[in-house]
Amino acid sequence: MPSPSDINGKLAILADAAKYDASCASSGSKRESKGGLGSTEGMGICHSYTPDGRCVSLLKILLTNYCIYDCQYCVNRISSDTPRARFTPEQVVKLTTDFYRRNYIEGLFLSSGIIQDSDYTMGQMIEVAKTLRERELFRGYIHLKTIPNAADDLIETAGQYADRLSINIELPTVGDLKTLAPEKKRPAIEQSMDRIKVKRDEITSDRKRGLRVPQFVPAGQSTQ
């Protein structure tokens, strides 16, 4: 069993835990690799597509699979007996830049279980993206999964650093959500989606008027 106390152990646990997020589509390619880190099939390396049609390899991991919620369909729910691990934001930054410099990846997909509360968790994910962009001058692709019930200003900040934001709708009906994931509220999920759309529309409008405005999720948003 991987040890949650070292980086490789954390990577094994949190890359495996991230496989349930519908963030990437495998292209079916396979590369030879001796250590596994460069493989498209293992250690959290997957494929996604940019708006211009390019296929990019992403490091796909969770910040942590600890979670305060008990969603009945989720393997990472608080009542689940599963190995747990947690990266610091700095560890995710280092993994991403190390893999990027070795040409294993062209970007990062980052999601997370909820620790402390939604705003704290979203803030930790933003710290990863902000550090990559501002300190490391990382120009690769970043896809962040937004955290349910996170504040609007945090979602907006995340969109300034990420190429794509996505949100889990989770279940088709309000009744299903109430039964299987009572901590999550459908109106809050829809509000986050609406906020992303409104902000993107504002940016598009400003650019049509010739204004110079910062990027905001240029690859758009998606749902699961």
Protein traits:
single chain; 224 residues; alpha/beta; TIM Barrel; six-stranded mixed beta sheet; 6 helices; 37% helix; 13% strand; globular
Give your account of this protein's structure:
Helix content is 37%, strand content 13%. With 224 residues, it is an alpha/beta fold. Strands 1-2-3-4-5-6 form a 6-stranded mixed sheet. The chain has a single domain (7-223), classed as TIM Barrel, CATH 3.20.20. The chain has 6 helices and 6 strands. The protein has helices at residues 7-17, 89-101, 118-135, 152-161, 174-180, 186-208, and strands spanning 45-49, 55-62, 107-111, 141-145, 164-167, 221-223.
Instruction: Tell me what portion of residues adopts beta-strand conformation.
Output: 5-15%
Q: What is the CATH first-level class name?
A: Alpha Beta
SSE pattern: HEEHEHEHEHHE
By DSSP, the count of extended strands is 6
In angstroms, what separates the terminal alpha carbons?
30 Å
- Radius of gyration from the alpha-carbon trace, in angstroms: 17 Å
Task: Indicate how many domains the architecture comprises.
Answer: 1
Portion of residues in helices?
25-40%
Low-confidence stretches: 24-42
Largest sheet: 6 strands, mixed
Number of helices: 6
Strand line-up across the major sheet: 1-2-3-4-5-6
